[in-house]
Amino acid sequence: MSGWKECLRLLRLIPVGVIGSGSLLALSGGGQSGGQTAALCDEGSNADRRAALEVLKRYQESLKEDSVVNESSADSSSSVALELQKIEDSLSNAKAAVEKYYRYQARHILDKYYEDMTRKGLSAPAPERPAAKANTTEGAPADARSVNPKKEQPRYLPADETFGNFSEASSPVCVPYVIIGGGTTAWSAVQAIHEKDKGASVLIISDESYPPYNRTPLSKERWSAEDDDLNFVDFMGRKRSLLYSYSRQVGEHRRSSILLNSRVKKLDLENSSIETEDGQVVQYQSLLIATGGKAHPVESVHQDLGSDALQHRVMSFRTIDDFKALDKLVRDPNTKSVCIVGGGFLGAELACSLKRIAKLNDVQVTLMFPEPGPLFKLIPRYLSEFLTYKLAVAGVKVMPSSIVTGARESPEKRDSVELDVVSFTKKTLETDAVVVAVGIQPQDKLAEDAGLEVDQINGGVVVNAELQAANGVFAAGDVASFWDAALGRRRVEHWDHALVSGRIAGDNMAGGKSMYGVQSMYWCDLSSIGVHFEAVGLQSSKLDTVGVWNLKEPSRFENRPGSFSRNKYECGIVWYMKGKRIVGALLWNMPREALQEARQIIGKRSWRTLSSG
Ligand SMILES: Cc1cc2nc3c(=O)[nH]c(=O)nc-3n(C[C@H](O)[C@H](O)[C@H](O)COP(=O)(O)OP(=O)(O)OC[C@H]3O[C@@H](n4cnc5c(N)ncnc54)[C@H](O)[C@@H]3O)c2cc1C
C-alpha cells in the first residue's frame, strides 16, 4: 500500500488529483464569503428575525381583534380576559424570539472575533464568557469556583458509600465531583480527576444499566464475536471488553461510584445541585455534563406501530441493549429481512456487519436513505458512488433517494413491518426489523432548562476554551459546543473527542486550567468491503475537495473504452477546502502516520503551499 509520502509525491508528479464539486458560496446563499459557520449563523439569525417579526405581527393583529371584542361585548369579561391572556402570550413569545435573535448576534460576533484573532496569528483565544446567569461567575477561570457561602455547608460523603443504596441515603447527598452521564466522556473525566486530586470522591449518574463502555465496536467488531458476553476482538486481534476498566488511581482509593439506571431531571445552578427522576438531590462542588446524544427518531416510522411486539422490531441503535435486541432478532430463523434507515456511518457500518453474519441465515439487508449515495453529506460524490457499488457487491440492497413516510404491521406477515417508501415511485417494503440510524440529538435540555447557553446552530451546551459552561459547571463530549481555534465553533460526535475533552474537563474540574485545542479524529470501519477511513477537521460534500489517489491498475475488463473502473479508489487522501484553506482531511485506507500530519495541516496551510512543498 502506498503511504502518505507516496500520495504527496503522486500529487506533485502525476495529474491524478480529482476536484470535487460543491461550493461554499452556495452555502452562504448571498454570495458572501466568510465560511460555513458564518453562513449558517446568518441563516439562523435571519430565520430568527423572521420568527420574531411573525410573532410581533400576530401580536399587532391580536390587538386589533381585542378592540373588536371590547366594542361588541363590553360586558363579557371572561372573553376579554381570554384575549388579554392571548396578548400576554404573544408578547412573551415575541420577547423570547427577540432575545434569541440577539443571542445569535452576540455569539456570531464573538465567534467572528476569535476567528479574526486566530487568522492574525494571535495566541489562543481567551476563554469565552458564558452568557450572564444568576449565581454564575461569568467567564471566571477554573480556580475561581466557590461554594455559595449563604447555603448550608455541604457534607462530602465518599462517593462509594452512596453506591448501591443511594436511594436509601439521606437527602441531600453531597459529593465534590458529580458527572451526569455514563459514557466515554464520563469515564475519561474520572481518570483525569483522580490523577489531579488523588483519592477524590466522584459520583457518575447514568440512566443506562451498564457502567461506562465503548460504543464504537457495537456497529463493527462486536458482530464478529462468537460468545454472548461483552467482549470483542480489536483490530490488533486482542480480545477486549466493551466495558472500560479504571486506572490504578481510581481503583486504589475506591472513592468513586456509579449510580446506574438513574436519570437526572433537574440541574439547579443556584444551589449547585442536581435532582434525579426518583427525587434524590445531590449537591456538587464541580459538575460535568456528559450526557452525549440520543438517537433521532423518525416520526413516520414510529407513529403507527400498534402492538408491543411490533415496537420491538423498530429500533434505534446506540446501546448494548440495542445491540443485544438486534442480534437476537437477526439470529432468529424467522427473520428474513432487516431494513436500515439512514445512510450515514452507523447505517453503512451496520449494513456491512449484518450482511456478514446474516449470510448464515440468508437475511436480506436493505440500506435506505434520502441522499443519492451512502455518506453523501460527508464524502465527494465519486466516493459515495464507489461505496454504493461496493455495498451492492457485498449483497446489501442499497436504496438511495428513498424516504420512509409511514410504517404499520404488515397485512401479509404477522410480526412484520410494512414501510411506505417514496422513492422514484411510491412503494411499500415488507421487513422483519427496522433499524433507524439517522443521527443523534445532543441531550442539552437539562442544561438549557437550568439557564445555560445552548448553541442554537449546532446544538449542545456552549462551553469556553476550558470546557466550562458556567462557574463550576463543565460540559464535554458529544453534548458540548466548543471553540475550535482553527475551525470556529463546533460540536462533534467522535469517540476521540469524548476521550480528550472528557480528560480536559476532568482536569479542569480538579483545578486545572487546560485549554481544549485538539483536532479530534474519527474513523469509519467498512473493512468487510475493503474500506477503512479516518478523518480530521471538517468534512462536508458542500465543500470543495481535492482528492489524491493511488489508483489501482484497472483490470482488462474495466479498461474497456467507456467503462468506469469502480475498484480504483484503493487508497488516498481527500482534502476539504474553504477558499484556499485546508479545513479537513479524509484518509482512505491510509496508514496511521498520515493522520498526525493531516492534523498539523488543518486550518494552517493552503492547498498551494502543500502542493509545492
Ligand atoms: C454504534 C456506534 C458506533 C460508533 N462508532 C464510532 C466510531 O467508529 N468512531 C467514532 O469516532 N465515534 C463513533 N461513535 C460515536 C462515539 O461513540 C461517541 O462520540 C461517544 O460515545 C460520545 O461519548 P459521550 O460520553 O459524550 O456520550 P454518550 O456515549 O452518548 O454517553 C452519554 C451517557 O449519558 C447518559 N445520560 C444522558 N442524559 C442523562 C441524564 N439526564 N441522566 C443520566 N444519564 C444521562 C446516556 O444514557 C449515556 O449513557 C459511535 C457511536 C455509536 C452509537
TrEMBL record:
Ranges where the Mitochondrial apoptosis-inducing factor C-terminal domain occurs: 505-553
Keyword Transmembrane belongs to the record: no
Alphabetical keyword list: Apoptosis, FAD, Flavoprotein, Mitochondrion, NAD, Oxidoreductase, Signal, Transit peptide
Compartment list: Mitochondrion
Cofactor annotation: FAD
Annotated region (Disordered), positions in chain: 121-155
GO biological process terms on file: mitochondrial respiratory chain complex assembly; programmed cell death
GO molecular function, one term: FAD binding
Signal peptide (from-to): 1-26
Family, similarity comment: Belongs to the FAD-dependent oxidoreductase family.
The name this protein goes by in its record: FAD/NAD(P)-binding domain-containing protein
Species per Swiss-Prot/TrEMBL record: Rhodosorus marinus
